[in-house]
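Open question from group meeting: does this chain pack into something compact, or does most of it stay loose? Before anyone orders reagents, we agreed to write out a predicted structure and look at it together. Recording both the input and the output here so the notebook holds the full record.
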Amino acid sequence: MLIERAMISDFLKESGVDAAFIEKDENCRYISGFTGSDSYLFLTADDCYLLTDSRYTEQAKEEAKGFTIIDYAGKLAKTVGELSAKHHVTRFGIEAGMTYKMYLSFDEVLPETDFVFVVPDTLRQIKSAEEIRLIEEACRISDLGFEKTVPYIKAGVTEAELRTILECAMLEAGSEGKSFDTIVASGWRSAYPHGTATDKVIEEGDLVTFDFGAIYHGYHSDITRTVAVGEISERQRYIYDAVLGCNEHIEKILRAGLVAADVDQESRKYLKEKDLDKWFGHALGHSVGLEIHETPTLSPRDHTVLCAGMTETVEPGVYIPGVGGVRIEDTVVIEKDGISILTKFPKKFLRV
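Structure tokens returned:
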């Protein structure tokens, strides 16, 4: 068991349930230490179970210390029903991602039980020192991957070729895979916030946005850098400097105790002074960990008070159709009086 049993008891009590069924892989891994898939947790205040099949029983016994391992042998609903009866469950916590088919199978064996949505993801919001170390290593790998990619950024190559070079460089540096579909968006396509790489050829005068991440021991990094190819227009340089200024301004004030939505609003205030706020449509940032997008988010709708040990990305961007776009992003750790920036590749204007 990776987290203390008291945390599970508190989570169940705060959620108002007698037991919880956990199916999201990242939550199963965080709570139990089990790194396989197609498995589930059944949690009560007194006992914790990992439900799996014959492919994973031995692995589960090795990794999920403190859990009772059950091979449900293709009869998941029946197993859940038996455990619920054993523990006298009347209010049963389920995650929002449960399929309707699974819900119906559970409802059939638990006709008198109330189903309640629970959010175990909140248990993962504050990272341990070991988790931060793993995220920091993922960031080091992505930094190194981009460093090895920069010499290949030039007019005449395609976005897809640069994506391949970058992803291979991260794998060679120790990444377990890519955190998400790598974004390489050049020229007019850089106005696409999520413009994944295409066969478009890089041209002189393009701004090229790279958004990418590595994975290390299951933990993700997230970084964006924008590079100029040859001479760019004064308008493009103005946008770059404004976005960089916004990124640095937020990182200078970011600390524990601030409200996530207020930080997002501050970034919009900064870009409004540059007459660019209307071209910034997405949230300022999000947490990272076992998933690439976690909570809390630096967005207008998230009023979480930031705590030391939380991770966030700081990624302001400006995207103007027909002109192009710029995004600059770091992964950071919230601290009592500031932040630690985990992504180290320089952000100063880079022309190749």
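Observations to bring back to the group:
The first strand starts at residue 19 and ends at 22.
The chain has a mean pLDDT of 97.
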